[in-house]
Amino acid sequence: MSAVLTSTAVQPGVAFELDGQPVTAHAGETVLKVAQRHGVEIPHLCYTDGLRPDGNCRACVVEIAGERTLAPSCCRAPTPGMKVEATSPRARKSQQMVVEMLLSDMPDVGYRWNDEKTCTPDLIAASARPSSGRGHFDSKNDAAVGQHGELSAWADRLGVSVRPALHALRREQPAPDLSHPAMAVNLDACIQCNRCVRACREEQVNDVIGYALRGADSKIVFDLDDPMAESTCVACGECVQACPTGALSPKTHVGSQKVDRKVDSVCPFCGVGCLITYNVRDEKIISVEGRDGPANHGRLCVKGRFGFDYAHHPDRLTVPLIRKPGVPKEVRPYGADWRDTFRAATWEEALDLAAGTLKSLRDTHGPKALAGFGSAKGSNEEAYLFQKLVRTGFGSNNVDHCTRLCHASSVAALLEGVGSGAVSNPVNDVEHAELIFVIGSNPTANHPVAATWMKNAAQRGAKIVLADPRITDIGRHAWRTLQFKADTDVAMLNALIHTVIDEGLVDEAFIRDRANNFEALKANVMGCSPEAMAPVCGIPAETLREVARAFATAKSSMILWGMGVSQHIHGTDNARCLIALCAVTGQIGKPGSGLHPLRGQNNVQGASDAGLIPMMFPNYQRVDNAGAHAWFEDFWGTKLDETPGYTVVEIMHKALAPDSDPHRVRGMYIMGENPAMSDPDLNHARHALASLSHLVVQDIFLTETAWLADVVLPASAWPEKTGTASNTDRMVQMGRRALNPPGDAQPDLWIIQQIAQRMGLDWNYEGEESGVAAVYDEMRQAMHASIEGITWDRLERDSSVTYPCLTADDPGQPIVFTEKFPTPTGRLQLVPASVIPAAEKPDADYPLVLITGRQLEHWHTGSMTRRSTVLDAIEPMATASLHGDELARLGVAPGALVGIRSRRGMVQVRVRRDDGTPHGTVFMPFAYVEAAANLLTNAALDPFGKIPEFKYCAVAVEVLQGTVSEVA
To answer: 937, 836 in Cβ contact below 8 A?
Structure first.
């Protein structure tokens, strides 16, 4: 049975009576919510915050004067003068009956024991006895102790025990489904509240869980009643979080819910920045829950919920290592014994050697001889301190991190066009968008929680346009799909801009008042009509015109893009076109409209903000700007290099420069970065790293890069540190330490300071957690123009604050550019872009195009996610995806072993059929060392963003094993 809100137009200040007391309902409140706010306990099981009220369990019924039947309070809106009895004898009797009937069907031993506050062994044993239906009450901690989660808790509060006669009629118990690596399905504890169905269908919009059959046979099913592991489940765990009884549970947290501590933090994976809570028992994280943070509102994905155990992996580095003399520098496979290559050392010895040799190289060959790679996987404080060390200790601006490999071109275009490299609107502002333009991004795999906001918007009627060479999962929710030919982004986008101008859809007021260089843009796209560009990009002209009209005429249109836009030699031009499309239509500076480059790693936004890039001081102040240069020289009290440093790829070239080159890089310090897997043309990158006179690597695992090091420093994983991270929405968020680093591993912030002191810097950051609060306060002063109002105390209290935030009472600005742009003129600068072909085109020898990217379960170079039990179990093997027609042309079946070859290298992988991958292309994730996609990719650079062309290179596929006939 279900119900809907009987009155949807609830106005503020509706006065009614609840249990004889006058109360007032706020706008949109149900009777249940009003009761909760006034401390009146009404049992409820099918309702939980965050899910649509369904009214099917009937545990929350109340008595309303003048009405014959009891009403479900979770979906009943109050009306003026209504008299509600929540605890009347009739209401209470019905509530108790529902709870007793549900409890009578429960198994003898449940899966979610309510003992998380305090529960003695005697009480645990008693609560597991079949004769005990209610559970027990721990008066000391006011916590119900029982074996069936929320059901036991309500039974205790209502004084309900199951009568033996009713217990004897218990249903036949269904068999458990333990097929999934992450979740246990025990439907003998299911009360069919449908919370899991709503969580899956309405929150995450994955449409996997359903309610099947009728009457006594009705049950929860996955797809067509498949085992969970064989269904289309993406393991977001939203159902687990929603389940009130433990019928759906994480396998690591079945039974006793008692934990030693709960620690609030932020997810260490993608840039969405979901707030989480770690559950810690016996000094191990046993499960993760989503918190109601502004970016996720309790939602998580498979990585955030089940990818936590990498921190406990036996491969963790626990002692400093020093390379043995004479051992060649080469990347070793997983599981190789480090003792063959390194010897254990004390921290004093390792730090002295690491910093002492770097200092000697600096003093002998000059400051340009050193370079540093920082990390977007660490904290803002670590990023800030690392770039400060390179600039003040090494003496140059040769510092960079993975932003160079993901959104450098986007940032270059945004700084040029709108004066800021950050997003204009948060992801969940798509709630206010009429049209959502997703280009060069696979959000359901790369930013799954962000994708849920897009899917929710589509459910409400927003139009999603997916523009991508590949049709990915978000395409199922799209109004129009623009599957353009790879490398033709500019042609397609110029056709859209042309249409807006040609059909008189330009926002004339915006162009007049807020933009420059419109006439040059107009002239540039004059020859780019949809009819002219259709053969180039492969999209019918009428479709291009239809999408352009919809984008321009929508009340609000928002563009979200990923590395499919940025990782080209024309990536900056791609982003310039997106800026221009927003500008000519006036779709920026208001709710539901604007520009959002989706950040890949958890702190790539914050690391860039903090200055971990070679041409910018913190807060994007150019190092060659005289005013900014003088300010930082005064702030840091030392002379600074006046010229921009080299970028990631350029540093690799300089490591192989001749000895006569005064800028040859001879020593490097790499913190939490893995260029031996993430750089393009890996053979070249690995050769460069191995050629260094001295390489210091600071990491939590012996990564491919660490195998090439002279000194390896064991560092702290994200759950082992306290610090802030800034997500893709410009939210500065607090991460708290839940664990101590293993063995002799140390916090990254401590290690950086130790290196700095040995390099001759007089640093002394006092306070807990290696002085993290003091470092943050210094960073806040350096970035006063954006985060001055976000103090450490405020973050400890609020966990998340959006910048710009300039005063203590400033709530932060989720939407920017509402009145002006932070450019010298205050106006947006339009920059025309012409069609530039890729640096390398297919030919007879290399007839296919390789596109690289991420997949849902694995992240970055796989150093963390491939050491997560669940994530590796779901996706254990490197694969390459091809269209079914392409497989047929090759004469192979899915699962066949092939070699993929480019002009730079060759890898062997198993093929996977994916008809969303276009003809003539191959898609490969880059997280697998045994089949490293970046052995194939092209190191050609975008001239503005200096980003490599990961998304396009020519390859050939050679069948090695598994032709159709062999499989047959």
So the answer is: no
Three-state DSSP class for residue 394: helix
What pLDDT score does 478 carry? 98
CA-CA-CA-CA dihedral for 719, 725, 727, 732, to nearest 10: 130
Q: Please, what is the average pLDDT of the chain?
A: 93
In sequence order, what DSSP letters do the residues of 483-496 get, joined into one string?
Answer: -PPTT-HHHHHHHH
pLDDT band at 121 (very low <50, low <70, confident <90, very high): very low
- For residue 964, pLDDT beyond 70: no
Please give the sequence-ordered ranges of beta strands (E in DSSP) within 623-774, or none if there are none.
Answer: 667-671, 694-699, 711-714, 723-726, 731-735
Q: Are 266 and 273 a contacting pair, CB within 8 Å?
A: yes
Q: Which two tokens stand for residue 137?
A: 């009450």
Say which residues have a Cβ less than 8 Å from residue 96's Cβ, sequence separation at least 6: 158, 159, 160
The pair of structure tokens assigned to 675 is 């260029």
pLDDT over 90 at 706, yes or no: yes
Would you place residue 172 in the very low, low, confident or very high pLDDT band (cuts 50, 70, 90)? Answer: confident
CA-to-CA distance for 878 and 908, rounded, in angstroms?
9
Alpha helices by DSSP H, listed for 611-747, are 626-636, 648-655, 675-678, 682-691
> Phi and psi at residue 322, in whole multiples of 5°?
-125, 135
Nearest Cα residue to 570 out of 297, 856, 947, 19 = 947
Q: What are phi and psi of 312, to 5 degrees?
A: -105, 5
The pLDDT of 298-327, averaged and rounded, is 97
Structure tokens at 682: 């890996």
Tokens read off for 38: 């006034």
Sheet of strand 21-25, all strands in order from the earlier edge strand to the far edge? 21-25, 14-18, 83-85, 61-64, 71-72
Q: Are 249 and 112 in contact (CB under 8 A)?
A: yes
- Residues with Cβ within 8 Å of 635's Cβ and at least 6 positions away in sequence, in order, are 781, 782
* Closest to 667 (Cα-Cα) out of 363, 326, 307: 363
Q: What is the rounded CA–CA span in Å between residue 761 and residue 755?
A: 9
Report the C-alpha gap between 269 and 602 in whole angstroms: 5
* Residue 828 CB-half CA count within 13 A: 35
Q: Mean pLDDT, to the nearest integer, of 805-824?
A: 95
Question: To the nearest 10°, the Cα dihedral for 912, 918, 921, 926?
Answer: -60
Helix (H) or strand (E) holding 480: strand 480-482
Count the Cβ atoms, other than its own, within 10 Å of residue 676. 25
Of all helices (H) and strands (E), which one includes residue 748?
helix 748-758
End-to-end Cα distance, the chain? 50
CA distances from 108 to 49, 127, 164, 740 (A): 29, 9, 13, 38
Cα 933 from Cα 948, distance rounded (Å): 14
pLDDT band of 129, cuts 50, 70, 90: very low
Q: Say yes or no to pLDDT of 910 above 90.
A: yes
Please state, as a whole number, how many other Cβ atoms lie within 10 Å of the Cβ of residue 628.
18
The residues that bridge with 721 in the sheet, in sequence order, are none
pLDDT by residue (tens digit) across 571-612?
A: 999 999 999 999 999 999 999 999 999 998 999 999 999 999
Q: How far is CA 746 from CA 305, 319, 739, 750, in A?
A: 25, 9, 12, 7
Count the neighbouring beta carbons within 10 Å of the beta carbon of residue 889.
13
For residue 940, the model assigns a pLDDT of 92
Work out the burial of residue 69: count CB atoms within 10 Å of its CB; fewer than 13 is exposed, 13-18 middle, 19 or more buried: exposed
Which uninterrupted H or E stretch holds 890? Answer: helix 884-890
CA 426/CA 430 separation, integer angstroms: 8
- What are the C-alpha distances in Å from 607 to residues 119, 378, 384, 446, 779? 44, 8, 7, 19, 11
Per-residue pLDDT, 305 = 97
